[in-house]
Amino acid sequence: MTASPGPETARVVGVDFDNTLVSYDELMWEVARERELIAADVPRHKRAVRDHIRRRPDGDLDWQRVQAIAYGPRIKDARLIDGVPGFFAACRRAGVRVCVVSHKTTFSSIGDEAVNLRAAAAAWMADHGFFAPHGLGLREEDVYYEASRPEKAARIAALRCLYFVDDLEETFAEPTFPADVERILFVPDGAAPPSAGLVVCRSWDEITRRVFDARA
């Protein structure tokens, strides 16, 4: 039997964290309702919550506060997105290394400065079995937090990812994003297809098929 490649030689797939591995849809709706920023009939989806809040006076600041709460002190209530464990299991079977690369500052510029957003994300991943050998099997040293989009793009290039999965087109529009990485845009809400050059997937099952069928 051929041994699986070690972490330095394995093929690498990079994935974003916020809204790619973890869903804040219900949580952000709840936080916005608690702060009386939206009506009860607003759909329980991040995009709808954001769009309704931004229509308010000072709506951008209100939205940033909701994000700071969801990404920090309330992240424990966020949900693991369906299909993520199956993707990690497929990568483990194939000897593919998964690296999480997140554009995330250490602390929020708005909200509770005492909450370390990176530590909160790591704790959430630990609680959901990401680092457990018999769970998702992600190595803690394969999680990278970058303070800016250019730094995120540089990390993806340094890791020599074959694919990168993200929910934001802005990541792929970064001028320094490596040209030889296949760009998979995760669009679970079924929004309109984006610009050319991106592969659109609406579920993690679809992402799994894309990555492994393309390698078949």
Characterise this structure:
This protein is of the alpha/beta class. The strands form 2 sheets. Strands 5-4-1-6-7-8 form a 6-stranded parallel beta sheet, with helices on both faces. A two-stranded antiparallel ribbon has the order 2-3. It is globular and about 50 Å long. The N terminus is likely disordered.
Query: Structural class, from secondary structure content?
Result: alpha/beta
| Major sheet description | 6 strands, parallel
- Determine Rg (CA atoms, Å): 17 Å
Report the sheet-strand fraction. Answer: 5-15%
Strand order of the biggest β-sheet: 5-4-1-6-7-8
How far the N terminus sits from the C terminus, by CA atoms, comes to 20 Å
Give the low-pLDDT segments. Answer: 1-7
Query: What share of residues is helical?
Result: 25-40%
Structural shape: globular
Number of strands: 8
Q: What is the residue-averaged pLDDT? A: 91
Question: Topology of this structure?
Answer:
Blueprint (H helix, E strand, L loop, with lengths): L11 E4 L6 E2 L1 H10 L11 H9 L4 H13 L7 E2 L3 H11 L2 E7 L13 H11 L15 E4 L2 H11 L3 E4 L2 H5 L8 E5 L12 E3 L2 H11 L2
Parallel strand pairs: 1-4, 1-6, 4-5, 6-7, 7-8
Antiparallel strand pairs: 2-3
Task: Tell me briefly what this model is.
With 216 residues, the protein is an alpha/beta fold. It has helices at 25-34, 46-54, 59-71, 84-94, 117-127, 149-159, 169-173, 204-214, and strands at 12-15, 22-23, 79-80, 97-103, 143-146, 163-166, 182-186, 199-201.
Features:
alpha/beta; 38% helix; 216 residues; two-stranded antiparallel sheet; 8 strands; 14% strand; disordered N terminus; single chain; six-stranded parallel sheet
